[in-house]
Design a protein that fits this description.
With 229 residues, the chain is mainly alpha-helical. It folds into two domains: 137 residues, Ribonuclease iii, N-terminal Endonuclease Domain, Chain A (Orthogonal Bundle), CATH 1.10.1520.10; 67 residues, Double Stranded RNA Binding Domain (2-Layer Sandwich), CATH 3.30.160.20. Helix content is 55%, strand content 10%. It has nine helices and three strands; from the N terminus they run H-H-H-H-H-H-H-H-E-E-E-H. Strand 2 and strand 3 form a beta hairpin.
Length: 229
């Protein structure tokens, strides 16, 4: 994936300019630190919106954990490396031995590029630029971090493999009010893919999704499963 096109080339040049370059070239007016600050804020917003849409069943805590993993230094540096930003950086001589591969340097440059692109083209263009990068990385992050619950993973699988969205139906609610047990079925199309029980509907639905994933031959990270509410 290439870097976005800039009508104003000076914006891109500034995004690629480290403060060490300014120290040696005083004729330059500004390094990329202000753009880095702006890009950090833009990435926080766009990653949060992306995850909110992609994982509708995740709790706030799970989304927060996953967003932190998606925008941490190492991941943004990996995005920059994929975009071959390192060779384009404008560095002072003192940074040249290894600065082009340093994660903090690459991360800052990526944030600055996002900030610059937002200034020139707006939030929608910035979204189109970063979301393919998010999409390529997030599934591995979910598996590594244990961030997704069974319902989110089932929805992702069903939409990708079957082109359908799972539907959850409460099949039964047994017992007295203070000890009620709910039975929930998850259906994909006309087929019941899984049945689960729990002390509330959410827990029963998660159990049903877990059963459906097993039926589909999928696995899920136990650390991300939601507990009783």
């Amino acid at each position: 994936m290439p870097l976005p096109s800039f009508r104003d080339a000076s914006l891109l040049h500034r995004a690629l300019t480290h403060r060490s370059y300014i120290n040696e070239h005083p004729e330059e007016l500004e390094d990329n630190e202000r753009l880095e600050f702006l890009g950090d804020a833009v990435l926080d917003f766009l990653s949060g919106a992306f995850l909110y849409r992609r994982y509708p069943e995740m709790s706030e805590g799970q989304l927060t954990k996953l967003r932190a993993a998606l925008v941490r230094t190492e991941q943004l540096a990996a995005f920059a490396a994929d975009l071959q930003v390192g060779p384009l950086l404008r560095l002072g001589r003192g940074e040249e031995p290894g600065g082009r591969q340093r994660p903090a340097m690459l991360c800052g440059a990526f944030e600055a590029i996002v900030g610059a692109y937002y200034i020139e083209s707006g939030i929608e263009a910035a979204r189109r630029f970063v979301e393919p990068l998010f999409a390529a990385a997030v599934d591995d992050i979910v598996r590594r971090e244990g961030g997704a619950d069974p319902k989110s993973l089932l929805q992702e699988w069903a939409q990708a493999e079957l082109g359908r969205t799972p539907q959850y139906v409460t099949a039964a609610a047994d017992g007295p009010d203070h000890e009620k047990v709910f039975t929930v079925e998850v259906r994909i199309g006309d087929e019941v893919f899984g049945v689960g029980t729990g002390r509330n509907k959410q827990t029963a639905a998660q159990a049903a999704a877990e059963a459906a994933l097993r039926k589909a031959g999928q696995v899920f990270p136990l650390a991300g499963a939601a507990g009783d509410e």
